[in-house]
């Protein structure tokens, strides 16, 4: 039963993740990091299990997980950095927890470096990108009794002026700002679209909107909810379980129909895709389509 308990724990994590990423709300990239890293952490913990069966299963799962994680971890880790409630702190925390202090720091630094490269690519497409900070002009100093204005040549006035201005990119300014309360319900895309942030982070805002809008669906659009190879709709759709069961059952009912009656099957499928009513109404409409009493 201990083995079953371990398996159920894994299946629960995967079921929750699959339900989230295959649901009808089309989650985006900001959810990926928060939902996926606990799976890697649990796999690494169970890899230490002394049971041969569990260890072999976990190691196989971990190899497959690492293949997917290595391919997409940078861009999807960058997505969570663009959440003003977490930024780099959550990446450093998670990687340190999973890989240890040294390796975790290096992996977190690679995410930061990747974000810099990505930001620079966006900055090249826009004329702005640097926000000067620090004193814009030297304070006027009252004359002393000894006038030293004639001691230095004119080029002294411009010598070293650049040293008094610290140029910070939008990315630097964003990362240095305090974190927002992580417990608040925040619409991240709307936060980046706000007038204040559009003004302060024009280039970084474009990057954030592109990265945060990456869809996180876990199934291919053309094969989603296909029954026996049939594409139910030209675009990806996510149907409630009851509708999917009704479609599969309907296919069994009409499997023996003649070719000329196949139109009823197609009409029934289209009806199921378009109906947004209660179960009894759906059943009645479907029966009418199939001429079933």
TrEMBL record:
InterPro entries registered for this protein in UniProt: hAT-like_transposase_RNase-H, HATC_C_dom, RNaseH-like_sf
HAT C-terminal dimerisation domain location: 170-254
Pfam families linked: Dimer_Tnp_hAT, hAT-like_RNase-H
Domain hAT-like transposase RNase-H fold: 22-122
SUPFAM superfamilies linked: Ribonuclease H-like
Entry GO MF terms: DNA binding; protein dimerization activity
Protein's name in the database: HAT C-terminal dimerisation domain-containing protein
Species for this entry: Opuntia streptacantha
